[in-house]
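Hi Y.,

Following your request, here is the sequence exactly as I used it, all 397 residues.
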Amino acid sequence: GVRAPGINDELVDYYLSRHDDLYRAQLAALQAARAEVTKLVDSAMEVMVMRELAQPKTAYVLKRGEYDQRGDAVEPGTPDFLPPFPAGAPRNRLGLARWLTDAQHPLLARVTVNRLWQSFFGLGLVKTTEDFGSQADRAEYPALLDWLAAEFIRTGWDVKGLVRTLVTSHTYRQRSFGGAELMAEDPENRLLARGPRYRLPAEMIRDHALAVSGLLVEKVGGPPVFTYDLPESFKPAPAGKGEQLYRRSLYTFWRRNGPAPVLEAFDVPKRVVCVVKRDTTNTPLHAFVLLNGPQFVEAARVLAESLHRSAAGRREDIAAAAHLRLLGRAAGDAERAILTRLYDEQLNWYRSRPEEAEAYLKIGDTPRDVTLPAPEIAAATTLVNTLMNHDGFVVKR
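Below is the corresponding structure, written out as tokens. Let me know if you'd prefer a different format.
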């Protein structure tokens, strides 16, 4: 109610908050209700939505590109050499989307098919995946590109169906190596005389290491996570804990102009501009990351522990199983001999330096199995980590 004149508000509030049980109970209920409302509002995901202006702004031809030197006014339109704009379609992004996805449009289906081809074969049928204009490379097999685009449209833009067509084709399932003369004359495999062979993207390399070790968390969705790599960034951020460290690389926190250093080492581009085709380099930095990166060393140690348990510590079985798991094929006699010798050398070294073995096995957030002998696990970890540096681990064949 209304307080009488002359009543000291501070004294009244003090009395109510200290001696009036009913007031305190109702105040607590009110504060809880307000906190619930605030929690509900704060937890709601806000997404920016763009909307066309009721009266679009007039655009002009700018003389020499200078914004204050306006020429003729122009309206939204499409190039005359491409199909006409759909009748009745609005001259905005919705109309543009309908124009692009029209069954008679020759561009979108070809571009999409070419990008999918590049993702499986390393190079597109049109080598300049990012450019289908007058300066682009000509398609090596235009009839094949046209057929795939037509099938893509006919099946209702069925991406899974297109992927199935590509990966079940005879071209894709060929051996990745040809004769010496063919490899020399056609190093980029433009003749499609052999199967694809190219280094995996950075994200796949990291995810591959996590998957073979059993550390990969296959949870779908959620906010970005901070991995071991972020503390090494030019803008350091603390590494996460638990499952955050083992999510797919898709969820790794990424600044626009500063991706995670380990991914950047394997040619992940910055997001300052759109990049359709990544560059692929081959530098000693790759070996440095694979042999020393905490994510890879930890994955190697976890896999080494698993192999040691399943093989009951038998070095030959550990070497054979590691080779099969990491490279996807059984080791030959010479390879098994080399791996066994590597294991023995590392085991002798770590037995003479137990403190080095303990320090090596502490890398990573996942605690090691203390019931297993440290020198043997350290030796097996080195063996696994060495195989991770083999090109068979990072190259698709």
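The CA atoms of residues 269 and 275 lie 7 Å apart.

Thanks again,
Q.
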